[in-house]
Amino acid sequence: MNKPLLLSLAAAALLGTNLNAQTMFERFEAMEREMNNLKQQIATLKANQAASEAEDEEDEEEAEVASNDSKQDVPVALKSVVGNEDDEDDEDEDDEDDIASDEERITELEESVSELVRNTSGSHLKFKVDYRFAIENMSYEMADGTKAKNDAFMTNRLWIDMGYKATNNLTFKGQLAYNKAFGQRSGASTPANASLEAFDWLANENAYDDTIRVRSAYFLWQDTEFMGLDIPWTLSIGRRPSTGGHLINLRDDDHANSPVGHAINVEFDGLSSKFTLNKDWGTSIKFCMGRGMSNAQPRMAATAYATDTNTSVANPNIDLGGFIFTPYDDKQYKISSMYYYANNLIDLRDYTDQTQGFDTVGGLHSLTTYFTVTGIGNEWSDFLDETTFFASFSVSKSDPKGGQTMFGSPESETGTSYWVGLQIPSLLTEDGRWGFEYNHGSRYWRAITYGEDTNIGSKIAARGDAYEAYFTEYLVDDILSMQLRYTYIDYKYTGSNGFFGSQTGSANLITSSMPGIVDTAEDIRFYLRYRY
Length: 532
Description:
alpha+beta; 2 domains
């Protein structure tokens, strides 16, 4: 095949790609077909070149043997008829030129393929879609014996994941989110806490309105060495994926994000950096920092975005810092822990009048440790190989400041929580998963888990007991799935889903004389989920 023909094929692949296609998707499909054709041509050329080189070596060996056998029988006068050395050298040069020319053509075709890859998907954002329809039956029993319920609350949730790997080290990741009830939701502006529906920590977790919001957007740097040391490390900055963390991801049928879901499950802006200290043991430490509220004046103020020192109007920055330390993780057994301190935490100044804003009440220490077994035993049985067990224990300690009270107490109070769960293979299908979980929280327990995917309130935040069972089954490969989940929460103290002060977070023993206080909550949810 000559060079002009190969160049014309490359040009046709790049420029003549079905420009009359009606959609961009069809154009990309046509370009990908051309790319695959070019790859086949490259493979064929390389195979032909290898075969040609092998034949040339064979011919040279046979010619050398024949020449040695006949040298003494050929008269000197006939040597010019047989051929001379100069002619053989010329032929060798021609063969080398052909091979070099083939190599140039292969290089040109590979460059053409690379350009096609860039034009189709290689250098463009890649998208994934995650859509979920859910219908829920929710009921509440109040402390005074009254009841509230919704027999069929239906929601649409859409996540659009996007990512782009610019180099082997640098990646961008993001997620857009849409979450709303079917149709217009009546009464959304009536309750006292309705204005918190779009609060930054959980805006994408509420069935709110038809707005598409940014749920996460960040870059991720990955490297195999840190300052010349054999320590793989990462650095990430942006709106981090801080919901759906470890342990809580099991019932949500998602890959785990960084935080431990026992103590953190909110949307957050910040940075993190992970260092793998021992690859054999899976030992690592991850440092995390974030900001939950920025003290900054309005854009149209005379001093735009400056710190507002008027404490009757503005709150100081809410900052959080901590680390996740994993001493051992061999993918079957894992021990991990998380500590953080959050300062300048808030509560409503007046629960009945949210226009008055927030008060800053103090800080919070939190320490969690957990243990997971992914596959019980060493190939004892197929059932146990696919069974996951976990146990987690968490401690929170309030730190009131400025004469404020936290959780109804002016003193520093300690709360505890434990959580156990078991996930087993489905008894009906090959790929399904069934799970059972229980968690308990003490009087002053506080988790920052407002973004948990439980519409009756975070079960992990319960000052009391929570029980849950779920059945996840796959209907079409891993693309279409369904889940039936039952959640029951029995509260012992008030303020489980409130903020950190005494307006919404007071931890009082629930009695029958408390109107408007939820005693138990129950949720039965069925969903269909499409992911591709």
